[in-house]
Amino acid sequence: MVTAVVRAATMVMLLLLSCSACQAQLSPTFYANTCPNALSTIRTSIRSAIARERRMAASLIRLHFHDCFVQGCDASILLDNSPSITSEKFVTQNDNSVRGFEVIDQAKSAVENVCPGVVSCADILAVAARDASEYVGGPSWKVKLGRRDSTTASASLASSQLPRFSDSLQNLIRLFGSKGLNERDMVALSGSHTIGQAQCVTFRDRIYNNASDIDAGFASTRRRNCPATSPNGNGNLAPLDLVTPNSFDNNYFKNLLQKKGLLQSDQVLFSGGSTDSIVNEYSRDPSTFSSDFASAMIKMGDIEPLTGSAGIIRRICSAVN
Ligand code: HEM
């Protein structure tokens, strides 16, 4: 009797396992028949947004990251507050900081015009991140598609699972590890801080109170536009890569070797710990960084997608249908 129960339970487990594996099948050709112009439509929309404001490339890459780390890449970050949704947009790591929502909305409405109800917001985020990287001179890759959109968001998961600028290396490794991303993936992905901006509030502590782990000249330059006392100048911006803030290259890693990482979470990647050798390697070898970044973005895009009949295709990205 007991054996029969164990056998049945094992069968159920195996079925569940094989089903979750078969569900996780994303494919670059997912829309080839149902919306052959999806990718070109998104691309046109994203390129024109970045042409208007170059920083948008950075913002879109970050938006995809902050989507994937919370309930998987399911566009949960795009949902606004409603009676049934507590939006992720207002947790500390996102509030007044993640941007690009209107650009995704525009791309979605352009795609809805050509194929209504077919292409998910989660896929648009993934494609936008790739198109953004490519536009500013970064790597390109084939985006796997077929994600569906969530009907839920989770502010509490966003708060506990998105990394913070003050995190230790150990904590960062743990957070990325919990998403199936190893140290090499984490360092490569952090290399997207080769573009974009950060607000004074995120690096104030580092430039005033961290004398041993920061280049003195760099700290003093950054202090000029970031007053010592909060909330003065909290929102003042500085480039994450001081050398080439508008192009996607490997200067971010060269900066870390010189203790010129802007955020604490940048500098901990090169501060005597287990990721030093990876930072060293990427600083010397831009093409390895490029190909590792592309692979890590694909891996990140694979985090817990909703596929098959799970989730929905939202009509607009900010609300459930
Ligand atoms: C390792 C942990 C990470 C931490 C703690 C972190 C934290 C931050 C912070 C605090 C900012 C500045 C936000 C602001 O001041 O408003 C920022 C910006 C940015 N992050 Fe990260 N980040 C991490 C990893 C990543 C990853 C993995 C990616 C992409 C795959 C990424 C992409 C970006 C980009 C592109 C920007 C600039 C955004 C813009 O200019 O709008 N970050 N990050």
UniProtKB/TrEMBL annotation:
Cofactor(s), names only, from the UniProt record: Ca(2+); heme b
Residue positions binding Ca(2+) 1: 67, 70, 72, 74, 76, 88
One biological process term in Gene Ontology: hydrogen peroxide catabolic process
GO molecular function: heme binding; lactoperoxidase activity; metal ion binding
Compartments, as annotated in UniProt: Secreted
Enzyme Commission no: 1.11.1.7
Record keywords: Calcium, Disulfide bond, Glycoprotein, Heme, Hydrogen peroxide, Iron, Metal-binding, Oxidoreductase, Peroxidase, Secreted, Signal
Site feature location: Transition state stabilizer: 62
Alphabetized InterPro entries for the sequence: Haem_peroxidase, Haem_peroxidase_sf, Peroxidase_pln, Peroxidases_AS, Peroxidases_heam-ligand_BS, Secretory_peroxidase
Pfam families membership: peroxidase
Sequence ranges assigned to domain Plant heme peroxidase family profile in this UniProt record: 25-321
Signal peptide start and end residues: 1-24
Disulfide-bonded cysteines: 35-115, 68-73, 121-317, 200-226
Keyword match Disulfide bond: yes
Cofactor note: Binds 2 calcium ions per subunit.
UniProt record similarity statement: Belongs to the peroxidase family. Ascorbate peroxidase subfamily. Belongs to the peroxidase family. Classical plant (class III) peroxidase subfamily.
Cited function: Removal of H(2)O(2), oxidation of toxic reductants, biosynthesis and degradation of lignin, suberization, auxin catabolism, response to environmental stresses such as wounding, pathogen attack and oxidative stress. These functions might be dependent on each isozyme/isoform in each plant tissue.
Annotated protein name in UniProt: Peroxidase
Protein source organism: Durio zibethinus (Durian)
